[in-house]
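Notes continue from the previous slide.

Worked example: a multi-chain complex. Inputs as given:
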Amino acid sequence: MTDRLPDAAISVSGLEKSYGTVRALAGVDLEVPAGTVLGLLGPNGAGKTTIVRILTTLLEPDAGSARVAGLDVVRDAAALREQIGLAGQYAAVDENLTGLENLTMVGRLYGKSRAAAKRRATELLERFELLDAARRPTKTYSGGMRRRLDLAAALVATPPVLFLDEPTTGLDPRSRLQLWETIERLVAEGTTVLLTTQYLDEADRLATSVAVIDHGRVLAEGTPDALKDRVGGERVEVRLDDPACAGSAARALAPITDDSVEVDGNLVTVSVHRRSGAIVEVVRRLDEVDVGIEDIVLRRPTLDDVFLALTGHAAEEAENAQAAKHAQEAAA
Amino acid sequence: MRRLVTDTVVIAERNLVRLPRAPELLLAFTVQPIMFVLLFRFVFGGAIETPGFSYVDFLIPGIIVQNIAFGGFVTALGLNEDLHKGLIDRFRSLPMARPAVLAGRTLADVVTNGLSATILIVTGLIIGFTFHTTALEALAGFGLLLLFGYAFSWVFAFLGMLVSTAEAANSVGFIVVFPLTFISSAFVPVHSMPEPLRAFAEVNPFTIIVDAMRSLWLGVPAGNNVWAAVAWSLAIIAVFAPVAVARYRRAVGQ
C-alpha cells in the first residue's frame, strides 16, 4: 500500500515554458486528487510531454508553480525524486544490461543496498511476468516487454505518484491490454497516476478525469464520459438493406437517444450514451419493426472528434499547425 | 557525499558490465592494441632508429599511452549514446547524485585502461620488452598511466557531448586522437620529425607522458618529466572535469 498524500497529489498553477521562441506551455492549471488518474489528452506537440518533464523535475518552468506529493517541483526537486516514478515514451532501460541488472541498478540508485535492490527487482520481474527473460539483455526483449520493464523500473521505489508518458503508443493490442490491466491494479492500490496519451480509448479506460491539451493550454477538463458527451457520445451506425425502411428505422430507434436520429440514404446513425448493450438494443428494435440490417458498427469518438468539437479543427490539423508554427518561430 | 560514491560505483559497474557483451568494444580494448603493437614492432620497428634502446622497449610505453587515448574516446561514444536515449531521463528523475553519471563513466575507464595496459605489457614482455628499472618504478609508471587515462577521459567526455550523433563523436574523437598521439614521442623520437611537427610534438602533453613513462620503465634520465606528467594530468582534470559537468548539465537541461 502506498502512503496517504495530501488531498491533491498533483497541483499545477499557471505553468509556462518556452524553448527559445517556441511557446510550449502557455499557462496550464491542473489538479489531481490522490489515488486518481488524470489523462492528458492531446496530439503531438500539444505540450503534454513538457508538462510531464516539468513535474518530474527534468525541466524547470519559466513561470507558474507545481506541487507533486506536497513538494514543490523546483525548490524540493531532490526530495521529490524519491516520491515519483516515470515511465516514458521511449523505454528508458539500458539495452546492454539484463532485466534483472536494470532493475537492480535503479534500486541501488534509489539508495537501496545491493541485496535489497536485487530482491525488489526479482519481485517486480515476477509481477510483470518477466522472470523468464530476467537474465537476458533487454535488447532481446520485444516492445511490449520493454515497456513492462520500463514501468517496473518506475515502480522500484513504490512511488505514490506515477507519471506515464504515452505508455502504450506503438504497442500491439495484446500488450496494450496487459499494460492497461497492470496500471488499473496499481491505481486500485492507491497510486496516483498522470498519464499522457493520444488515444481517447486509453483515456476512457484508465482516467478518472481527462484534460484536453492543445497548443500548451488546457482546452477542456472532465470525466471521459462528460467529454464524450460533449462530442455527442458514441454512435451506432447502421447500414440498412433497404433505404426505404430508413423512416421506420429512425422512428424505432428514437426512444434510445437524447439526440435526433440521423438518416443519410441507407445509413442510419444514432448517438448513445451507454456503450454496453447499445448494439443489442439497436438490433432488437430494428428486428421488432422488421428492418433488415446489412452492417452495424459502434463508432467510438476519437481524439479528432474531440478536437473538432472543442476547437473546430481536427487533431491532426492541430499537430501540423503546431509543427509549422514551431518551425516558423524557430527560423525567425 | 556517500551517495555520490555509491552512485558513481553503480554507474561504473554498469559501464563495465556492458563490455563483455559488446564484442566490438572488447575488441577495441584487446585485439586492436595487440595488433598495433605487433604492427609497429615487426613491420616498422626495423626502420626506426631509437638510440640507446631497442625499438620494442621504446615502443611499449608509447603504444600504451596511445591506447589509453583511444579508450577514452570510447567513453565519448558511450556518453553520447546515453544522452540521446531515454536512459538519461531515467537517471535524472532518480534521486541519484548528479555528477555520478560522468564520474562513473570516467571511473569505469580507469578499469578498462588498466585492463588494456596490462594486456599490452604482457604482449610486450612476450615480444621482447623488458623493464629496466625497479618494481617500484614500474608500478609508479602504471599508476601514472591510470592517472593520465583518467584525465583524458574527462577530455573525451567533454568532446563526446559537443556532438549530436554517434558518428560525429566517432569522427571528432578520431580527428583529435590521431594527431595528438602520433605527433608525439610515442612511436618515433621527436627529433626525427620535420621542424613544424617537432615543435608541436615537444609541447604535446602526450610526449611528456610518454617520456615520463620511459623514465620510469626504462631508466631514461627523468629531468622533470614525471612531475610534469603528473602536473599535466591534474591540470587537465581540474580544467575538463568541471567543463564536462557543466556541458552535461546544459545538454540535459532542455
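Summary box: Chain A touches chain B through 29 residues (CB under 8 Å). Residues 234-299 of chain A form a domain with the Alpha-Beta Plaits fold (CATH 3.30.70.100).
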